[in-house]
Amino acid sequence: MTNRYGKKFLVLIPAFNEEERISEVISECRKYLSNETDLLIINDGSSDGTLAVCQREGINVINTPFNQGVGNALQTGFRYAIENNYDFLINIDADGQHDPNDLPKFIDKLNEGKVDIVIGSRFLENSKYDGSKIRIIGIKFFSKLVSLLIREKITDVTSGYRGMNRAALNFTIVDTFNFDYPDADFLLTLHRAGFRFCEIPVTMRKRYGGKSQHRGLKPLYYIFKMLLSIFIILLRKKHR
Amino acid sequence: MGIVIVLGIIELVRRRKLNEEYSFLWLIIGVLLLMITFFPQLIYFISGFIGTELPINTLFFTGIIFLMLLGLFFSLKISILSNRVKKLSQKIAILEFELKKNKEAEKQN
């Protein structure tokens, strides 16, 4: 479906075991989108009732054959968007942390065509975020590191609330584009390929229900993996 | 030991349980062991060359190096296969979704 700008927008929600929250996220998205965009869920091998909830809601769901992580779920959606000629894609989390009220801001900003990627930041003026202190320190550390490397101010590199145009989507579906957690390394790769960014203020709420991907020893793995990934990206040649 | 490895590998390839591509590495190990069995002076020569006092240490050292390289080779293969599985799973998921949509559209018509 095309929207008021005559463009095809897709809102993508990757979901893994989110039966408690997904229904609310879907209805909130519908409320704020007013039929301007298509909505697609990527059910990443959930073992709970996520699929049943989505079917009850009558929403389009792509089921991956098994759980492969958020990076792969997103890439499935990016591939679908390219194959179905979408002009823009906005991804939003299924756990209710991202406020769908901000979706129209993404649509307007992407449609201006001045940037390729729009990042929803929880640390800009007029943003709202109610997260743990340790998490905030981690996000700020990686944001400062990326800002230093790209010589451009980015305040929230770990934000999963992002919009991309077709050119950026096309770049992210090649076989060698691998990101377990598409955060700092993902943005750094895109920046080195010449894509333009901007941030917009968004509201991020506390997670309620389901299980966070950052639990147990995973944050330690995340830090190590992200630093290694950033180092390797810097060793690679810049190319699109 | 060398004979058992070489014969075992050949039998696995014959039964199509092991691809020729991977049998090659194991055959090299088997042949090297055979050579050391029939020409033990070879291990003394290598020991002198790399400066180890005991030939057994040379065996352990070369064995560990070879296993490390083998591990790296398999990691490389696993990475390639993971990328292929990832792409296949994405394509299957999208195709399944489109097939379902087409079937529903056909029913409605």
What attributes characterize this protein structure?
heterodimer; A: 240 residues; alpha/beta; Spore Coat Polysaccharide Biosynthesis Protein SpsA, Chain A; seven-stranded mixed β-sheet; 8 helices; 9 strands; globular; B: 109 residues; mainly alpha; elongated
Structural features, described:
The complex is a heterodimer of chains A (240) and B (109). With 240 residues, chain A is of the alpha/beta class. Chain A has a single domain, classed as Spore Coat Polysaccharide Biosynthesis Protein SpsA, Chain A (Alpha-Beta Complex), CATH 3.90.550. Chain A is 40% helix and 16% strand. Chain A contains 8 helices and 9 strands. In chain A, strand 1, helix 1 (22-33) and strand 2 (38-43) form a beta-alpha-beta unit. In chain A, helix 3 crosses helix 6 (166-172) and helix 7 (184-192) packs parallel to helix 8. Chain A is globular and about 45 Å long. The two termini of chain A are 29 Å apart. The model of chain A has no long low-confidence stretch (mean pLDDT 88). With 109 residues, chain B is mostly helical. Chain B has one domain. Helices cover 88% and strands 0% of the residues of chain B. Chain B has helices spanning 2-14, 20-38, 41-50, 55-108. Chain B starts with a helix and ends with a helix. The interface between A and B is medium-sized, with 18 and 13 residues.
